[in-house]
Structure formats: structure tokens, C-alpha cells
Amino acid sequence: MSGPGAALERLPRLGPQDGRRLVRLARAAIRDAVVGDGAVARDLAALDPGPELSTPRGAFVTLRRPDLPDPTDPHGALRGCVGSVDPELPLYRHVVELAPRAALHDPRFPPLARGELPVVHVHVSVLGPLREIDGPAAIEIGRHGVEMTAGGRRAVFLPEVAPAQGWDARRLLAALARKGGIEAARVGAARLRVFETVQFDEDDTVAAGGRNTSRYW
To answer: What is the model's pTM?
Structure first.
């Protein structure tokens, strides 16, 4: 078998236990960054990652406040989101690096305060391989995350963003261009790549195996 489906099938499958471990690591890394209690070092010392968590993969860590309602997101208001599509690190290490950045260094939000730790909600998205496409007709809203690159600039949206905002593929691309500061004249020639995700968070979706936008995982 060849093609993107084969690439996804070669990745170790992520199950509910993997999701719980990733969310726990993200939570520990955030707590350690905010209060400096060594939580992440203790969790890493006890971790046996196996191929599921040690294979390099792209990932995003998203923080939300369920106590602050958001009409576009049942999980609450966004409090930070940082990630990378590039699978340069083992997955568990990638999540440990991203989580404090989402908490403290997302430029859209002030750094997470100690008092927010009990109420912030941690969500981890794990990416499959990126696949280049020719144009918006190949984008499946709700299934595909999209990366746009042009003129040395890049922007990414996760699969859940477009349906939450009510965008079709063309409006999604326009929003990506705005996010990345990509000139409208460059959008038609921009490089587009799509990806799928498996997602885990601190509620019963973790126990159920995570929300999955890929038919291969």
C-alpha cells in the first residue's frame, strides 16, 4: 500500500492510555513552569514511553478555560495554543516543550497565573504526516488541518477551527493568510499541506480513546 494512508498506518497507534500520559505530561510541564515544583521531572523519570510516545510527531497543546464560556467551543474560552507540525522530537518530549510555551508564551494572552492552574483545561493534538495538496477543493472541513506557506511566512489551523468558525475551504485559506501575514496576491501560489489529528484532553474523551479526525488511526 502507498500514499498518505500507508504513512499513517506505519505510525504506532495511540490509545487511551497514551492520551492520558500525554495530557499528564503536559499538565506537569505547565505546573512546573508556573510554580517550579519539579512535577515534570518526576513524571519523566517514571515514564516508559515505548514506540507510541517516542516516535517523532508534530503536536499542539491547547489550553482552555471551561469556566469562561465560548459560543464557538464547548470546552470554553481559549487560553493558549502552541504547536509545531514538524516531527523533530519524540512525541512525549515535544509535548513537554510545547506545554509551557502554550501557558506562558502565546503572545495573544497574558502568562498563565498560578491561580488558573485548577481551572485551565489541557488538550493535546497529535498530528499525522503532512500531505501537499493543489488547492482548496482537496480540503475536507472538520477532517483536515491546513498549513499555508508563502513568501517565507507560515500559518496553521487545526481541523476543529474551520467548523467552529463556520468556514468553508476558501474562507479557511483567507483566514490562514491573515493569520500568517501572507499577502493576498501570494495566496494562489501558496504551498498548502493538510494533516489529520488524534486529540486527547482532560475529560471523558481521553477514556474513550480521544477524538479522532483520521480514519487511519
So the answer is: 0.85
